[in-house]
From TrEMBL:
Signal peptide: none
Protein family (similarity comment): Belongs to the binding-protein-dependent transport system permease family.
UniProt xrefs under InterPro entries: MetI-like, MetI-like_sf
Domain ABC transmembrane type-1 intervals: 70-260
Name of the protein in its database record: Sugar ABC transporter permease
Length: 275
């Protein structure tokens, strides 16, 4: 019992230390956002909250079109996430449970695309968007990425172990169509994996900077990440303002994470224990 208590205390101490290290950058971001520019260079550094947070928030709102860019980013992230969840779950379920000729070959080709660095696709993709006249439009940010190989792979691996074949056969006997089986039976079972994929996709879309920078040319259509670059001067950067803008942009991600945290943890751990 004594050994168990000591080991338990050590494990909990290590976990608490890990939590502290993980939470410290976020706390330091709040501290920096609450300070003036001259205060962040003080030695030794100040680890307590300052009294400039409200002023910095007000300055961010005054210096940028924060709410407009927030709505732009929210629209792009929600639409992109919805499309990816639908098409990736449909393709993943198809690869996992439907038998058709060339299934394994197509899946290998699909996985091989994951080995291509994303930066290599920027120039060809931009030329394609320019050719069809989508430069400057949200369509160039949403349509090309509405299906991705990682999402299909993730859903396929989850569906293979989570959806019993006997359940699908019973649905076929009852006269349910192929799409009906996917919509009424597969999707509810895939909910934990969809929660993980949805949060992952939403975060990627929300934090995307490079592709919107290349595509968008109208300041009224700027995403939040692009709008925050307006806080950086040519010869001088007010870092507390930049950090304040980053803090405000992080809050929606935290809210989404806390809302879907239960489904996220279920999606990660599902299938770890097998009978």
């Amino acid at each position: 019992m004594r050994k168990f208590n000591v080991s338990s205390i050590i494990i909990r101490g290590v976990l608490l230390l890990g939590v502290a290290f993980s939470a410290f950058p976020f706390y330091w971001m709040i501290v920096t956002a609450s300070r003036a520019t001259t205060e962040i260079y003080s030695v030794p550094p100040k680890f307590t909250l300052g009294d400039e947070l409200l002023n910095n928030i007000y300055t961010v709102f005054e210096s940028t079109s924060f709410f407009q860019s927030f709505l732009n980013t929210l629209f792009i992230a929600v639409v992109s996430t919805t499309l990816i969840l639908f098409f990736d779950s449909l393709a993943g379920y198809t690869f996992a449970k439907l038998k058709f000729k060339g299934r394994h070959t197509l899946f290998v080709i699909l996985l091989s695309t994951m080995m291509i660095p994303g930066l290599l696709n920027i120039i060809p993709q931009f030329i394609m968007m320019d050719t069809i006249g989508w430069v400057g439009s949200y369509k160039a940010l949403i349509i090309p990425g509405m299906v991705n190989a990682f999402g299909i792979f993730w859903i396929k691996q989850y569906a293979e172990g989570a959806i019993p074949n006997t359940l699908l056969e019973a649905a076929k006997i009852d006269g349910c169509t192929t799409f009906g089986i996917y919509w009424k039976i597969a999707l509810p079972i895939l909910r934990p994996s969809l929660a993980f994929l949805g949060l992952f996709t939403f975060m990627q879309s929300w934090n995307d900077y490079m592709w919107p920078l290349i595509i968008l040319n109208d300041p009224e259509k700027f995403t939040l990440m692009l709008e925050l670059t307006q806080l950086q001067g040519l010869y001088f950067t007010n870092y507390p303002l930049v950090i304040t803008g980053t803090l405000l942009a992080t809050i929606p991600i935290l809210i989404v994470f806390f809302i879907f945290s239960k489904q996220l943890m279920s999606g990660i751990t599902e299938g770890a224990i097998k009978e």
